[in-house]
Amino acid sequence: MSAASWLSPKRDQRGNTIEQHIIEGQRAHPSATGELTALLQQITLSCKIIASRVNMAGLADNLGLTGETNVQGEEVQKLDELANNTLIRLLSRGGRTCVIGSEENEHPVPVPEGYPCGKYAVLFDPLDGSSNIDVNVSIGTIFSIHERRSRAGTAGGLEDLLQPGTKQVAAGYVIYGSSTMLVYTTGEGVHGFTLDPSVGEFFLSHVNIRMPERGKIYSVNEGNAATWEEPVRKWAEWMKTPNPELGHPYSARYVGSMVADFHRTLLKGGIFAYPADKKNAQGKLRLLYEAAPMAMIAEQAGGAASTGQERILDMLPTELHQRVPLYIGSKGDVEDVLSFVNGTRS
Ligand code: P6P
Questions:
Q1: Is the CB of 284 under 6 A from ligand 1?
Q2: SS (H, E, C) 165-191
């Protein structure tokens, strides 16, 4: 698409920046104050900075470990730290948030003394899949935005972060891959923006992304199969047993970076799963800043997301870093795995 077509008044929505897209969306909500727009712009700027560092990590000595371990007991990569510090610095001082929850920080991160508290609570995984950084596999930033529950003007806290996924005002992710793409929803469909590095701006490239009813790909770490519950093992076997009526076997794809595996599932359909296992009794993925934002996106695109026992978005969180089993993707494919997990199919 030539630059000129982005400027012509007759263009379709493609080519809009995120700000233009939100403002056009807000026309339907006269009460919108622009605060969410400002917050999304702060997140977007943070991710542009992260993208620039990720894309030259090998040259700028950002690869490798810091020697620290985070609250998850995972080795902290230099880019993890850079991504986390960038998001915290821009959001905690941007006047739109009252508190931050980050995968890299054990406790809620407050707004610094002397800076204004805003009306939003933000949660993020600053650089998901970071164990793949050194081998140049796609990684990503995942974010979730809630309106604060605590009194305006006061310091935010845990009560503002521990909210069910149904209360999310917005959710999204940025995937740092062959191109850098931001995918987000404010509850009015799912939209994708691709970064044009020549101008340093994200432009609308995927309008109203919809997930197919079923796909042809299943994505799960089968190296864990011996530690799964029996019904999950039976499901995985069923997915790869030839059955032309069902379109089985599905293809197996597993990157090991949730943002990459989910992004493919969103665009092509199918299912991504991280079941509970004997190593991770509650699953490995975190509810508040991985499963819940991705579940909002999946449902907004016509898909589904479950723990195996309940809808992800209905879960009432009790801890900032709590983990959940996750089955997410095309509605039909999620229903199929639940039929095994719930025992209606064996
Ligand atoms: P495993 C990355 O560390 C992550 O949190 C997700 O991005 C990814 O889906 C999962 O863990 C991969 O875990 O155990 O398959 O390596």
A1: yes
A2: HHHEEEEEEEEECCCEEEEEECCCCEE
